[in-house]
Amino acid sequence: MIRFLISLIVALVIGAAIGLYFGWVRFPVQYLNSPASSLADRYKDDYTIMVATGYLKDGDLGGAVDRLRILGQANIPAYVQGVTERYISNSQDANDIAYLVALSEGLGRLTPIMQPYSQLHAPGQKPLAVTTTVVIMRRMHAANTVAHVIRFRSGAWGSD
């Protein structure tokens, strides 16, 4: 039993030493400056939300477009519209959607599916965190979303 434990410890030490040699000396990490256009779609979407948040805070539409150009998209307004509509269709976070809708609206790409979310913020302000609307919207069918949100926002929710 002692011989087995000693052999195990020696094997672990030799394995760790060989692993450290190969990891640090023979094949070290090579850092590359990859372009943002090579990001996965999920991370491009996250970056677009960050840019939309910045746009809502400072109102600089030109700066937002310049920041989005590094993603390698030919048509920035169409790209933002596509991301926004995908987030709405997939029922993502309401605040993220409101940020994206504000940027889409600034780019002149406000579509009917975005209308309920354009009311969740005032220009230059952070979107309202209306969790009640989010819960209600996630439980409704897509066709009824617009009518229910408008009824909720106007205060006529409980007056059926």
Architecture overview:
With 160 residues, the chain is an all-alpha fold. The chain folds into 2 domains: 1-31; 36-127. 64% of the residues lie in helices and 0% in strands. It has helices spanning 2-26, 41-58, 61-69, 76-89, 94-106, 115-118, 131-139, 145-154. α2 packs antiparallel against α3 and α2 (41-58) packs across α5 (94-106). The radius of gyration is 25 Å and the shape is elongated.
Structural features:
160 residues, mainly alpha, 2 domains, 8 helices, disordered C terminus
Secondary-structure map:
Elements: H1 2-26, H2 41-58, H3 61-69, H4 76-89, H5 94-106, H6 115-118, H7 131-139, H8 145-154
In short:
The chain has 160 residues and is mostly helical. Helix content is 64%, strand content 0%. The chain is elongated and about 75 Å long.
Number of helices: 8
Range of strand content: under 5%
Roughly how many Å is the radius of gyration? 25 Å
Q: Main beta sheet: strand number and arrangement?
A: none
Tally of distinct domains:
2
Helices and strands: which structural class?
mainly alpha
Number of strands: 0
Q: List SSEs in N-to-C order.
A: HHHHHHHH
The overall pLDDT average reads 79
Instruction: Report low-confidence residues grouped into runs of 5 or more.
Output: 128-160
